[in-house]
Amino acid sequence: MPKFSRACVALIFLMSACGGTPTTPPPLTLTTSHPPAPPPTTSTYHVSGVVTDDSGAPVAGAKVAVYPVGSGVTDGRGAYSFDFAWGVPFDVGLNVDSPDHEPFAGSFSFAGALSPDPSHNATQNVRLYRIKRITAGESTVVTIAPGDPFCGVFNDELTCRTVRVMVPASGLLVMSCDPRGDDNGGPGLNIEGYNTRIVSGDWHVTAGTEVPVRIGMWQNWPVSQSCVFTTSIARP
Fold first, then answer.
1. Is the pTM of the predicted complex or chain greater than 0.85?
2. What is the CB-side half-sphere exposure of residue 183 using CA atoms within 13 A?
3. Rounded to 5 degrees, what angle do the CA atoms 149, 202, 211 make?
4. Using CA atoms, how far apart are residues 103 and 149, in angstroms rounded to an integer?
5. What are the tens digits of pLDDT across the range 79-116?
6. Left (φ > 0), alpha (ψ -120 to 50) or beta: where does 219 sit?
7. Where are the alpha helices (DSSP H) in 77-221?
8. Alpha carbon of 157 to those of 154, 160, 190, 219: distances in Å?
9. Which residues, 6+ apart, have CB-to-CB distance to 14 below 8 Å?
10. For residues 76 and 94, what is the distance between their CA atoms, to the nearest angstrom?
């Protein structure tokens, strides 16, 4: 049987009395072979343009909202300008409003081939159409041009103009725009959400109201198109 010295016994006793648990080592710090990503760099972008009405006259004081940048108003020449910093090329939403004009909604891009200027400059001019009204029973020629506002039942698939139809009597608003387009693309114009489908209750109208009707061509169509927009009221 092994023999312990008094010193060993005393040491064992002191360790027990003082809770002689070994000190826990500090946690290890793990390292990775991949260095942390550098902070994203930013570039300075500049967008500018001129807002005119359908006669080509400048629209002063129009509110211009550029998303996600900010908003401002056009000057006496109808001009606007924004400078801002951003990390990567991106799509920009553009909304323009002015009294007595139909609002404009569109977008442009600083990305890829849509923005060949390496200095990140973009020019986006806007046509802001004056409000056009007819009374149900009348007709008018409507021309849609590339660069007109976006609209559409399915994710802004159309480029549109708006005609406001005054309703003299209650009934079903019946419309056509010939040459009529196809809902699946191609030439011709479409009445947003309508064409010849009048089974919906959306077009039952009340005397004294005003109905905004948007007429559009497919957004990627490269040239202007026109149609004769006709209206009438069918009595229930």
1. no
2. 9
3. 50
4. 8
5. 999 887 776 666 778 999 999 999 999 887 766 434 44
6. alpha
7. none
8. 6, 10, 11, 6
9. 20
10. 20
Amino acid occupying residue 107: S
Per-residue pLDDT, averaged over 158-163, amounts to 94
DSSP-assigned letter for residue 147: T
- Name the residue among 147, 145, 144, 181 with its Cα closest to residue 163: 144
Angstrom distance (rounded) from CA 52 to CA 78: 7
Burial class (CB in 10 A: 0-12, 13-18, 19+), 121: middle
Contact 45, 108 (CB under 8 A): no
Nearest to 158 by CA among 214, 92, 109: 214
Nearest-angstrom CA–CA distance, 167 and 136: 6
Q: What is the per-residue pLDDT across 175-184, written as a single tens digit (0 to 9) for each?
A: 999 888 887 7
